[in-house]
Write a structure and sequence with these properties.
mainly alpha; two-stranded antiparallel ribbon; two-stranded parallel sheet; 12 helices; 43% helix; extended; Ribosomal_mS45; Eukaryotic mitochondrial regulator protein-domain-containing protein
């Protein structure tokens, strides 16, 4: 027996027990001048198979690191600095690090040059053509071609993803001036600049916050914003393109039709072939209260403008009609605001103190309806529970429509 207060020492390890055969060692080498120092990375005694796997893994890691640094110093060198006035995505380069759209532009120029027969040109035309070519080459040295759709792929293995354009700083400033300073209608600005109305409203709100911060002396992260904007495609403000009647200045689709829940059902509706079945008729089939597609789109006035263009209405008359529609819309908006103010003056009583304004509104109990669930009743959204919370209420559907 061993006494309780004494300890036994483990057997001493032999001098050769911690040695690993040379074929089973993973060595890390570092050169200092012409000398090479080797340090043993593993001191455990592996079996023959385990040692081979360990040795192969180290070789594989070294090869991967070598390939990584080879790519960083080779084709990946172009990603160290951003391209001026352009995005710099992986999809825009080939495996050798060459910009594809530069080669594509050069091929197009060569094709155009091949079409021209220089033997038929006179000496003056040849000299003029050479001078124009040299001038164009000087300009192209400092000019980056515009990105193609294939150049906007940040992930080369995902061909379906394209980086979408964002509004540039000058375009956002122009939208803010049109809405706030010039008091132009939101829908008019959206149609004029090809920007969705929700995006225009968001730009105005954010620009107002930004200008408020500047007036309060708060610092803005301008360098960070400029660096991020250089990495993504932008829609720049072009006044010449905006004033050209033959071209459209557009950032995104602005007249997409939202999917109404009533239109998700599948209906087989028989109709007569002797009459025209319009969008208004289709809306009434889905629901008697559903508006037609022409009335549900965000900018319904664009349909009238397109109809005038198809019917070859003169430009002056079209401009007059657009102005007349805008004036009617503005007058209706002002009339609605006036009636709302008059109603608030009659029914809302405001009690003010040093910090708050308390608003008391006159109500009518009869507006709640016979069952107390009227839409115009007070607290109809949260004051009265729904029927599905009542005892014994059948929650399973009893009919299919």
């Amino acid at each position: 027996m061993v006494p309780r207060n004494t300890f036994t020492m483990p057997p001493r390890v032999g001098p050769r027990a911690g040695q690993v055969p040379g074929s089973q060692q993973c060595l890390r080498t570092s050169r200092t001048g012409s000398n090479t120092r080797q340090s043993v990375a593993g001191q455990r005694d592996f079996s023959q198979s385990t040692g081979q796997q360990f040795h192969a893994t180290c070789k594989n890691d070294t090869r991967l690191r070598r390939n990584m640094f080879s790519w960083l110093n080779g084709p990946g060198r172009v990603f160290r600095e951003p391209l001026q006035g352009s995005t710099n995505y992986l999809g825009a380069y080939d495996r050798s690090g060459n910009l594809l759209r530069l080669r594509y532009g050069a091929e197009q120029e060569n094709e155009e040059e091949d079409k021209i027969d220089e033997s038929k040109l006179s000496d003056e035309e040849k000299a003029k053509r050479i001078e124009e070519k040299e001038t164009k080459e000087k300009e192209d040295r400092h000019k980056m071609p515009k990105e193609r759709a294939s150049d906007l792929r940040p992930y080369p293995l995902n061909n379906d993803f394209r980086s979408q354009s964002v509004l540039s700083e000058e375009l956002r400033e122009e939208l803010y001036k049109k809405i706030v300073d010039e008091k132009v209608d939101l829908s008019t600005v959206s149609a004029l600049y090809g920007v969705d109305m929700r995006r225009v409203a968001a730009v105005v709100r954010l620009k107002a916050i930004e200008k408020n911060w500047v007036s309060e002396g708060k610092k803005l992260a301008t360098p960070y914003a400029e660096a991020v904007m250089q990495m993504v495609p932008q829609t720049h403000f072009n006044r010449k393109l905006l004033e050209d009647p033959k071209k459209n200045f557009s950032h995104e689709s602005i007249n997409d039709l939202p999917v109404h829940p009533y239109t998700r059902q599948q209906i087989f509706y028989p109709t007569s072939e002797s009459r025209q079945f319009t969008r208004a008729d289709a809306a009434k089939v889905f629901s008697p209260t559903l508006l037609s597609a022409d009335e549900r789109i965000p900018l319904s006035e664009l349909i009238d403008i397109e109809k005038d263009a198809i019917n070859n209405v003169p430009r002056e008359e079209r401009t007059a009609r657009i102005r007349e529609r805008a004036e009617k819309k503005l007058a209706a908006k002002l009339e609605k605001e006036r009636k709302q103010k008059e109603w608030e003056a009659r029914n809302v009583k405001v009690v003010s103190n040093q910090r708050w304004n308390f608003r008391f509104e006159s109500i009518n109990v009869e507006e709640a309806g016979k069952d107390g669930r009227g839409r115009r009743g007070v607290g109809w959204r949260y004051g009265n529970p729904h029927h599905d919370r009542e005892r014994g209420e059948i929650k399973l559907p009893t009919s299919v429509e």
